[in-house]
Specification:
Structural class: alpha+beta
Low-confidence stretches: 201-221, 229-236, 491-500, 553-561, 730-754
Distance between the termini: 86 Å
Strand content: 5-15%
Mean pLDDT: 80
Radius of gyration: 38 Å
Largest sheet: 7 strands, antiparallel
Helix content: 25-40%
Number of strands: 28
Shape: globular
Length: 1112
């Protein structure tokens, strides 16, 4: 957290007039003024002379590191709370009104300080909040992960939410000064901050106080997220994640596994609050735990916490009444449930939608206005509350049923209107809650995987490991088979290996239904791979009898009928050749690299009556020998008489066993046991599942037996015994240490080796300190067609060096995916920087303003360190450019040149770019190089997503809604319109026509426009209440024999409505009026565009639609 003081050089420099005016313009309107009654609106309308005079005053404050005495005066107004205030100020919300000039000055200073702290990563970890680009998403995700882990592992969990009643009402200036000195803030800046806070203790300066108050860290007694493993857990595992508190601004939550640890943390918090002049309201503490006894009555007794007394803490105990484990609790306005229940949030979402509907149903609003309010007001609220509660599509559809009904009611649509038309952005544009939730989830996962906080990245990989372990997936869960997937940018040692060592995952050998049904049994058996079920030869599947005896008989009652399990039969049907005695198909054969030399019989086959010599391993992986003494069949364990050997010192000699006279692991054995003819001196308890029968020359131990010899040496048996002992201990490699090595001080920006584009010509090397000059250009052709292409080129210019027209060297090529002119302009910059030498000064000449703006953003690390980088198009390409600038320490000067202005070098670069589209030697930039700057990347059909993931997913769901719409029976005819020459629907024109709204005048008002809009969509969707449709929807009222009410000749449908003989004259007049109006508009448009409209009028006049009535 320490920082060099030179980064603060510009903190107290005099501001420019533009910076001051920009700060004032950003201040909100409609706020209460201070004692002088000057408002923000007055500041924003000052004349230039007054602004200049005010700027002089502001510069004096920066120079003296102090504020005016009059600014120290303020007015305090106590605002009553909802309950009775009872003449107690603590029951009010006091607000202090300061001078708006002072608050604008503080805002300017805060903007500068926050920019410095963000750019230089001064504050790290979770000890700050309020910086630009910050979010409260991280603590919410962390708490959800803790609750999920406790439910999955059945771990004890205590959560205590504290209510800090005076979080920012007063600040201990001494502690604040220590915190500011800790980040090495200049003394003058510290003096200015203290001057601002000496009289102001209110929320007007809350952003600065949030930014500067460094929170406390309780690193003792944490709740530990342990990496899932089949091996015994270790206390010093570096892959574990320890969490003991979540503090965001004034929202503090303590987390622990035990009550005693929580008491210890409460003692520290009380001392901290006393030290910093902060108080906590114990009556508002919220406690929930899964370790409290579940009572059968509704009465919940309070829990007493005994605190440690000290000079700072005078409170000996705190009594808190916990909430029920089935109840939901709130953290940062998001509701959590310790049991993982979604019912509370589901009811909240439905209640919000119903309340919204009830409020607007009687309001005089159009359908478009209701959609706008729902999309901009209600959806953000629902999205925030659903951050950790993921509802199914059915639940979302049920919760928003009232919203759809309201929109249809306001638009005068029938309730049977297909829902996809509501969600299409070209139609009503109502946001689908489920699709919006999925967009947010994928976007949040993407940001979490590439978070600038190392802790959040570790949490992301921990959740991946938990998924893998829970569902027996021996590969990364990111490697899904769906079109959308997240993948590691580079499968190198910089990333955690989430795969197991084995051959052919079991889920590839089983049907999904059987795999999910038998998942619990497979977990108990620790089965991941088919190689665990293959004979040592690798060509046959282990028979069920052998597997039952040696592996899983201990999992169920041995007295039951041992028929093959469904999972085994499913694997056998998939992997073995029928009628071949379980021989595997060639694709499943797995020959062992080093087959065991000796094949011993498993110890689990022994019985109490038939006792054998056994060999296994101890806790130090040393050989352990003994004679079977007693057996517990249901537990698959036995007690052996311990015999020792010196086989480790001479592994090549045959194993010689001698009685053990006693050791530390001795297990007392009853001397009167009927199985013991001789009282043993040393016994061991071992597992039969991890033991093998050892052939020896002695079957029975007698009084004079002092030595037993085996026919094998330890060198012969070593591999066999170790492989058998460890066969069930297959565990994923969840180590994070390789990944951690690629992270430096919490910065998530990965630094892979700089790519070497060897096929590109290198620039001419100049002497040290020289200035490189590149002209770059890009072009985009055939956009919207399969032949779309993006070309690029760069030209190196060296003046007065003997080169023809000063052109030293050049390169050109193409780039694929996400076609845009900006991408084509950025590609040559990437190519030029990739081949340039480090520590160079480079000028980039381009006619693209977008490319220049992108280069300027690279200087502030906008594409790597900000969680907003994914909102920028081509962010992966720009992140690679930014990486080159920082890694190679370039000094970049972008220069704007005017396009097509007869600049030779720019025209030459333009010609190279044009030739790249069709040139065979054009260099194609490799996608893997410029899309590997972030740890995880989002792909669709193996194409890396370089657009805003949320916007891209929105387009995907819009396409699915359109597909659902066209799949309706009424639109089946569109699937037969395949020939472009005959007839193709112009959807762009269709949507424009449906959404076109005429200008309102005295005869055509807003409610007329709404009715016009409804009629057009009813006509488009075949939703007009024609007699033919009414017979289908209401057969109880309209019989099939009914005909047209006007002519009584034919059944009424849309075509008959137009061609009815009784309405022919009226319809012809309507058509004639429309034709005259259309031709008039076209002639008028032709005059404005100075174009002859006669050809298009003749073409339109020749259409058969104008003569449809005369022909019939």
């Amino acid at each position: 957290m320490l920082s060099p003081p030179n980064i603060y050089e510009s903190l107290l420099s005099p501001p420019s007039l533009e910076e001051w005016i920009s700060t004032v313009s950003s201040m909100p309107n409609g706020k209460a003024p201070g004692p002088s009654i000057i408002t923000y609106e007055m500041l924003k309308h000052l004349e230039p002379t007054a602004n200049s005079l005010l700027l002089i005053l502001i510069c004096k404050c920066f120079a003296s590191a102090d504020i005016l005495d009059l600014w120290r005066q303020a007015m305090v107004f106590p605002i009553p709370k909802l309950h009775e205030w009872r003449y107690q100020l603590k029951n009010t919300r006091p607000i202090t009104l300061l001078e708006v000039i002072q608050k604008s000055f503080a805002k300017l200073f805060y903007n500068r300080l926050s920019s410095i702290l963000t750019t230089h990563n001064v504050l790290t970890g979770g000890n700050f909040a309020g910086l630009p680009g910050g979010t409260c998403r991280d603590p919410i995700i962390t708490l959800e992960s803790i609750i999920h882990d406790a439910n999955h592992n059945k771990s004890p969990l205590w959560i205590l939410s504290q209510d800090i009643s005076k979080a920012f009402d007063s600040v201990n200036l001494t502690m604040l000064k220590f915190a500011l000195e800790r980040i090495r803030l200049p003394a003058s800046a510290i003096m200015l901050i203290l001057s601002l806070l000496q009289t102001a203790r209110t929320g007007s300066l809350l952003p600065m106080m949030i930014l500067l108050l460094i929170g406390f860290a309780l690193m003792m007694d944490p709740y530990i997220l342990r990496s899932p493993t089949l091996l015994p857990p270790t206390t010093d595992d570096t892959s574990n994640i320890a969490i003991n508190n979540l503090v965001f601004i004034d929202d503090s939550t303590l987390i622990s596994s035990f009550k005693a640890r929580l008491e210890h943390m409460l003692s520290i918090t009380e001392e901290f609050y006393a030290l910093n002049n902060t108080s906590a309201n114990h009556q508002k503490y919220v406690l929930i735990s899964n370790s409290l006894p579940i009572t059968t009555t509704s009465t919940i007794f309070p829990v007493d916490f005994d605190l440690q007394l000290s000079t700072l803490n005078r409170i000996s105990s705190i009594s808190i009444t916990p909430i029920s484990i089935t109840s939901s609790f709130r953290f940062l306005e998001v509701w959590f449930n310790l049991n993982g229940s979604r019912d509370f949030v589901k009811k909240q979402i439905a209640g919000e939608c119903n309340s919204f509907t009830a409020t607007l149903r009687l309001a005089r609003l159009s359908a478009q206005q209701v959609v706008y309010l729902y999309n901009t007001v209600l959806i953000p609220k629902l999205k925030y509350r659903m951050q950790v509660t993921h509802l199914s599509e059915k639940d979302c559809c049920t919760a928003t049923r009232s919203i759809r009904s309201l929109v249809k009611y306001k638009a005068n649509f029938s309730r049977s209107l297909p829902n996809p038309i509501l969600y299409l952005s070209q139609a009503l544009g109502l946001i689908n809650l489920f699709s919006h939730m999925m967009q947010c989830l994928v976007n949040n996962l993407f940001l979490m995987a590439n978070s600038s906080t190392f802790f959040i990245q570790r949490l992301f990989f921990y959740r991946l490991k938990l998924i893998q372990f829970r569902f027996l997936i021996p590969i990364s869960p990111l490697m899904s088979l769906s079109p959308f997937r997240m993948q590691h940018a580079n499968f190198t040692q910089n990333f955690p290996n989430l795969t197991l060592l084995g051959h052919t995952p079991l889920f590839l050998c089983m049907s999904p239904k059987i795999f999910m049904t038998c998942l619990k049994v497979l977990c108990k058996c620790h089965l991941y791979y088919l190689s665990q079920l293959i004979t040592p030869s690798g060509t046959h599947l282990i028979s069920w009898t052998a597997y039952w005896t040696a592996y899983i008989a201990h999992l169920i009652d041995k007295r039951s009928h041992s028929l093959p399990h469904k999972w085994y039969l499913d694997i056998k049907a998939t992997t073995t050749i029928p009628n071949s005695h379980d021989r595997l198909y060639d694709c499943y054969v797995c020959f062992p690299s080093t087959p065991p030399a000796i094949d011993l019989v498993p110890g689990v086959t022994t019985t109490p009556k038939n006792r054998h010599w056994l060999v296994t391993l101890d806790e130090n992986d040393a050989p352990l020998f003994g004679k079977q003494l007693s057996v517990q069949p249901k537990k698959d364990i036995c007690i052996i008489v311990h015999w020792i050997s010196d086989c480790l010192s001479s592994p090549g000699d045959v194993i010689c066993l001698h009685p053990c006279l006693g050791c530390d692991a001795h297990v007392s054995f009853p001397s009167a046991n009927k199985y013991a003819a001789i009282t043993p001196r040393c016994t061991f308890k071992i597992s039969l599942l991890k033991s093998l029968i050892l052939p020896t020359n002695c079957e029975r131990i007698r009084q004079n037996t002092t030595e037993v010899v085996s026919s094998y040496s330890w060198a012969d048996l070593c591999d066999t015994v170790i492989l058998y002992y460890r066969r069930l201990n297959i565990s994923p490699d969840f180590s994070l240490s390789p990944f951690s090595d690629s992270i430096d001080d919490g910065n998530s920006f990965r630094s892979p080796p700089l790519c070497d584009l060897t096929s590109l010509p290198s620039p001419v090397i100049l002497p040290s300190g020289s200035h490189y000059r590149f002209y770059t250009d890009g072009s985009l052709i055939n956009l919207g067609s399969p032949e779309v292409s993006m070309g690029w080129s760069w030209v190196q210019i060296i003046h007065d060096a003997g080169y023809l027209n000063s052109v030293a060297t050049y390169a050109h090529g193409t780039i694929r995916n996400w076609p845009s002119s900006t991408r084509a302009e950025a590609a040559p910059i990437y190519a030029a920087l990739s081949v340039s030498l480090a520590d160079s000064t480079i000028s980039i000449y381009t006619d693209s303003q977008a490319a220049i703006d992108g280069l300027r953003l690279c200087a502030s690390s906008a594409y790597t360190n900000s969680h907003l980088y994914c909102k920028t198009t081509n962010f992966e390409l720009w992140a690679s450019i930014e990486h080159f600038i920082h890694a190679k320490r370039f000094m970049i000067y972008p220069v704007k040149v005017k396009g097509h202005d007869e600049n030779y070098w720019n025209e030459f670069a333009d010609s190279l770019t044009s030739s790249a589209h069709h040139s065979d030697d054009a260099f194609l930039l490799p996608v893997a190089d410029y899309t590997s700057m972030h740890h995880i990347r989002l792909t669709y059909d193996d194409v890396v997503c370089e657009s805003n993931p949320r916007r891209f997913l929105k387009l995907y769901y819009q396409a699915t809604f359109m597909k659902d719409l066209l799949s309706l029976k009424r639109f089946q005819f569109t699937f037969y319109l395949c020939n472009r020459n005959d007839y193709v629907i112009d959807w762009k024109l269709t949507w424009f026509t449906l959404n076109f709204s005429p200008v309102h005048d005295a005869s055509f008002q807003a409610h007329h426009a709404s009715r016009h809009f409804t009629f057009k969509f009813k006509l488009f969707l075949d939703e007009l209440p024609l007699l033919k449709r009414l017979k289908i929807t209401r057969p109880d009222l309209y019989i099939d024999l009914l005909t047209c009410h006007s002519c009584c000749d034919r059944k009424e449908d849309l075509m008959h409505l137009i061609l009815c003989s009784k309405c022919r004259l009226a319809m012809h007049q309507i058509l004639q009026i429309y034709q005259n109006h259309l031709f008039f508009k076209l002639r008028k448009a032709g005059k404005l565009a100075d174009t002859d409209p006669i050809p298009i009028l003749r073409q339109l006049s020749s259409l058969s639609c104008w003569t449809i009535f005369s022909a019939n």
